[in-house]
Specification:
alpha+beta; SH3 type barrels; Rossmann fold; 8-stranded mixed β-sheet; 23 helices; globular; disordered N terminus; ER-Golgi transport; Znf_Sec23_Sec24
Length: 1032
């Protein structure tokens, strides 16, 4: 490929087809996404007057709307502004060493002022530079008082939602004070001249020492080491910035100072201010359409009629009334549903409702289940369905009188009338073949090929199972687990074991015909662990010895799954296979795979084939597994390519979990693997599950994204569903919504419990509807939006080139923000980048998604790693995608040993690291302890029990157990971070300026990526340019 940078393919006015923006070219156009010709930004809406300020001037026309703050650049740099303007009252900047939140809260009494016009500059120059930025916060409590000099009377605009505003006036400026963080943008430096060439800063490893020194005159051209602005781009149409490393085609022009990263919206500041406002409080779900605390905020959730945000989070809690409005905003309308989410011990578990043989009460027309959205009428004898408005008779056993408010007298005694989430006991009508189900079974299937025996892995698994089988999940009131267990080993053939309790020794049966697998025994294969304990312990002792002399290195894979599924089917049970596998299945058998890891396909139209399975054997197998309630958990131990896209497919479709331990070493990697295995065995889950999402009239669920299988357009089928799995559901209008009734969603999940009881789990949530776009933006949730965009994009790469998918994401981001600026913000000049308060960190998260290894095709990134990450993200809930795309970076050199609290995180950028510091970084899969070269010897002694930096070994994957407060506190933090995440994070110790630091740097997501992704600052410039193009 040429060193040209990326240019967006379709012009922005042209429509791009497909659901979620990622459909096939011939599919009909859907709203809410990419390029609807009717939603182009031409005529301004009547309520918003276009400003008539000369281009480049940052002064808005008319006064700011109530509640708006315009912060003057001059005021920041040169003290008080011009006479007649009242100086701002801000808290002073923190000391330069402070790495806390990027901007402290400003005092509510601060006075609004207008920015001074930008320095005079010719239009020709202006066209050449993107003006420097200023961010204003529009928050509550900042309304100017009437009669204040800055608040002239004028026609009043509707108050905009809280918003961030960035102004870009050009020209040289006074250097900013050292990392001063005032609310909004500090005096910052303007950006490199990029407008004319359409150039975007290219990816160069970040270098903190490149900042222009204060007082140094800008040189005539770039300093050689500063020429890190990437190659020129053809045309002025911009796409994902920094696609290629900076080449020779550097831009020339007058030297400009860089935008100050402290001044752009900070995810950490957003997270911390939500924690400060809502952390530790009780959040009651008693109001339709209320926005819950962020997923990063700890609070106690009280169900009072709508499902807890632990179960359902939405991209916006106020849907636009019409599909035209939805097309205009392009905000996807979606819910992320995690039906089995873990609930902390201080919150009430779900109530179980049992109506005996009559079963759950449901609407006759739409089959929605009885819930708080049903309206009782005619003295309580009938009820109107909240979803389809059908009038139903109340069954006689369920009848109750109404009070003077029209509410049933037993309202608070019945979970299904007063709570958002609850469960029903299902009747035989909800069971397979109208028979009560058997309790599920777990089958352990161990690859006993040469490498696994020699590495000690097989012995490790067998030893662990001896103790782990005591911890099989059970209902709280039961003494022992009802789950049955079975054992299979395999290499090129399958070995089944009879572990019937009456036997003195286990018996092995070998199946050599792997082309058509059958189960050689029924009686004695799936047993009760308590009854067969001695035989099973015997077997687990014997397996490593039985295969000790094997030299068989080839393995099968598909027949292993087939065998497990056939065994469950014959026993008429749902269940879960635990498969421990290590190599590409190359033995002659169905599902045999060849190595197709071809780096030449990267960045071509055929790159998508790397994410698709080889052949259709695994898809057919997945379909059969789902039909038989067989969930597949896969533990992979590869030391080379194993084709995750193929072998992991069944796991993904059946609601299983994929674990991967590259180049597994017994000493270093056992703790991580064993911890994953233990947690997986003990997970709360449901088996043989079907989920359906119902909605009130006017909209419907159209797209389901997750680790799921769909046989038709409405039923989400999962062989099993556990506490970590989430399904993201997109909704579309099919009519106009109603502001009074709102938008109602009911998720019903039919499943079998670990004890074999059939149940229906119900989650209900009500959202508001509005004819005002501002209401839609005001209730958006960035974390849920990123979950939706990640899953949509990761699904789309199966059928579209990666470049197209990246362009769609950039385009969509620009469209959502452009619509806000045009319709909801106060009038602003072209040079102002205005972000809604709820979306002010959307650009940084979107840039993290664009830089993820799945969407960046580089030869250095193993194909299996990309397929693995893609599969994990498809099943993630909102909390997991939030941490995965924007890791937590904690300064641990400044731990407060007296308090229990985890230190406040800092932004993921190299600028936040310090030579004398130690930092912990976690993203849910990996965990790093980064140590600066001059970190204090006391800290080293306290954590590692060695005298100096040079003595620290980076081979260790855990910290030694030491009896000192610092070590104990850090261990406590590690446990806290780990406890909330589905995967055990292996600790990697990184010393500054040593080789492993390159791996660590990929997680500093605000910086340029070594694999060709833009820094946050550069991406913001790119998005601003896209928005300006859309609005011009």
């Amino acid at each position: 490929m040429s060193q040209q940078g990326y240019v967006a393919a379709p012009p922005y006015s042209q429509s791009q087809p497909g659901i979620g923006g990622f459909g096939s070219p011939n599919s009909s156009l859907h709203y809410g996404h990419y390029g609807d010709p009717n939603s182009s930004y031409s005529a301004p809406q009547p309520s918003v007057s276009k400003s008539a300020v000369p281009f480049g001037s940052s002064a808005p026309v008319g006064p700011p709307p109530p509640g708006a703050h315009q912060l003057s650049q001059t005021n920041f740099q040169n003290g008080p502004g011009t006479p007649g303007q009242q100086p701002h009252r801000f808290q002073g900047p923190p000391p330069p060493g402070n790495t806390g939140a990027s901007y402290p809260p400003y005092s509510p009494q601060s006075q609004p002022a207008f920015p001074n016009a930008a320095p005079a500059s010719s239009t020709a120059q202006l066209a050449d530079q993107l003006n420097s930025m200023q961010i204003n916060n529009y928050g509550p409590g900042t309304t100017p008082s009437p009669g204040h000099p800055a608040s002239f009377q004028s026609p009043r605009l509707p108050p905009p939602p809280t918003q961030q505003q960035m102004v870009l006036p050009p020209g040289p400026q006074v250097p900013p004070p050292p990392t001063s963080s005032v609310n909004g943008l500090c005096a910052q430096q303007s950006l490199p001249p990029m407008a004319r060439q359409g150039g975007i800063p290219g990816p160069v490893p970040p270098n903190p020492n490149l900042q222009q020194l204060p007082g140094q005159p800008p040189g005539p051209g770039y300093h050689p080491q500063q020429a890190n602005y990437g190659p020129q781009m053809a045309g002025s149409q911009l796409s994902y910035p920094g696609a290629f490393p900076g080449g020779p085609g550097q831009l020339s022009g007058p030297q400009q100072k860089k935008l100050d990263p402290n001044s752009i919206p900070s995810p950490i500041q957003v997270i911390e201010s939500d924690k400060a406002a809502r952390g530790g409080q009780v959040y009651a779900t008693n109001t339709r359409g209320q926005v819950p605390p962020l997923v990063t905020t700890d609070c106690v959730i009280q169900d009072q009629g709508h499902a807890s945000p632990r179960y359902i989070r939405c991209t916006t809690y106020c849907f636009p009334l019409t599909s035209d409005m939805a097309k205009q905003t392009r905000i996807p309308l979606a819910a992320v549903i995690q039906p089995f989410a873990n609930v902390p011990p201080n919150e009430t578990p779900l109530y179980l409702v049992n109506h005996g043989e009559t079963g759950p009460i449901r609407c006759n027309r739409c089959k929605a289940y009885m819930c708080p959205f049903m309206q009782f009428i005619e003295g309580g004898r009938r009820y109107q369905c909240g979803f389809c408005n059908c009038i139903n008779d109340v069954p006689s056993f369920f009848f109750q009188h109404l009070d003077h408010m029209g509410r049933r007298i037993d309202h608070y005694e019945r979970p299904e009338l007063s709570l958002g989430s609850y469960e029903y006991v299902a009747t035989l009508d909800y069971c397979r073949d109208k028979k009560p189900p058997n309790p599920p079974a777990y089958i352990f299937m161990i690859d006993v090929s040469y490498r696994n025996i020699k590495s000690g892995l097989v012995k490790l698994i067998c030893d662990e199972l001896k103790t782990l089988l005591d911890k099989l999940p059970r209902e709280e009131q039961e003494e022992s687990s009802a789950i049955r267990v079975g054992f299979v080993t395999y290499n090129k053939v399958l070995h089944f074991f009879n572990v019937k309790s009456s036997l003195a020794q286990p018996q092995m049966m070998v199946v050599t015909d792997v082309s058509e697998v059958f189960v050689p025994l029924l009686d004695g294969f799936l047993v009760d662990f308590e009854e067969s304990r001695s035989v099973i312990t015997n077997l687990l002792d014997q397996i490593p010895e039985l295969f000790a002399d094997t030299n068989e290195s080839e393995t099968i894979f598909a027949p292993v799954i087939q065998a497990g599924m056939e065994a469950l089917k014959a026993a008429e049970r749902a269940g879960k296979l635990f498969i421990f596998h290590s190599s590409l299945p190359t033995a002659e058998a169905p599902g045999k795979l060849k190595n197709r890891d071809d780096k030449k396909l990267l960045n071509t139209d055929k790159e998508k084939t790397l994410f698709q399975p080889q052949g259709n054997c695994y898809e057919a197998l997945a379909r059969d597994c789902v039909a038989n309630g067989c969930c597949v958990n896969l533990f992979l131990f590869p030391n080379q390519y194993v084709d995750v896209a193929s072998v992991g497919l069944v796991t993904m479709y059946t609601g299983g979990t994929l674990y991967k331990y590259n180049n597994f070493q017994l000493d270093g990697d056992s703790p991580q693997f064993l911890s994953d295995l233990r947690r997986d065995m003990e997970k709360k889950m449901g088996f043989d599950a079907t989920m359906r999402v119902r909605t009130s009239t006017g909209f419907r669920a159209t797209e389901f994204l997750g680790a799921i299988y769909m046989n038709n357009t409405t039923d989400v089928e999962m062989a099993a569903v556990d506490c970590d799995k989430a399904v993201t559901v997109e909704f579309k209008h099919d009519d106009k919504l109603n502001e009074d009734t709102g938008a109602l969603i009911q998720c019903a999940l039919l499943y079998t419990t670990v004890s074999g009881q059939r149940r229906i789990r119900i989650h209900n949530i009500g959202l508001n509807c509005s004819a005002q776009l501002a209401d839609v933006y005001r209730t958006c949730e960035t974390d849920a939006l990123i979950n939706f965009f990640a899953k949509s994009a990761f699904k789309a790469i199966l059928s579209q080139p990666l470049k197209t998918v990246r362009d769609i994401l950039v385009n969509q981001t620009a469209h959502m923000l452009a619509c806000y600026k045009k319709n909801c913000a106060s009038p602003a000049t072209v040079s102002q980048l205005i972000l809604p308060d709820t979306m002010k960190v959307l650009p940084v998260y979107m840039n993290c998604l664009l830089k993820s290894c799945v969407l960046v095709g580089r030869a250095e990134i193993p194909t299996d790693e990309r397929a693995f990450h893609r599969q994990l993200v498809m099943a993630m809930g909102v909390a997991d995608t939030q941490l995965f795309f924007y890791p937590r970076l904690l300064p641990i050199h400044s731990l407060d040993l007296k308090s229990d609290a985890v230190p406040a995180a800092v932004r993921c950028s190299e600028e936040r690291l310090s030579e004398g510091g130690a930092f912990l970084l976690a993203n849910g899969l990996s965990m790093f302890l980064w140590l600066g070269a001059s970190v204090s010897p006391e800290l080293i002694q306290g954590l590692f029990n060695v005298p100096s930096f040079a003595h620290i070994s980076t081979d260790a994957t855990s910290l030694p157990d030491l009896d000192n407060p610092f070590s104990k506190k850090l261990k406590h933090i590690l446990e806290q971070l780990q406890s909330q995440k589905p995967y055990t994070m292996k600790l990697i110790i990184v010393k500054q300026r040593e080789q492993p630091e390159m791996l660590f740097r990929q997680f500093l997501v605000e910086d340029k990526s070594i694999y060709g992704g833009a820094s946050y600052v550069d991406f913001l410039v790119c998005i601003h340019k896209e928005i300006s193009q859309l609005l011009s």
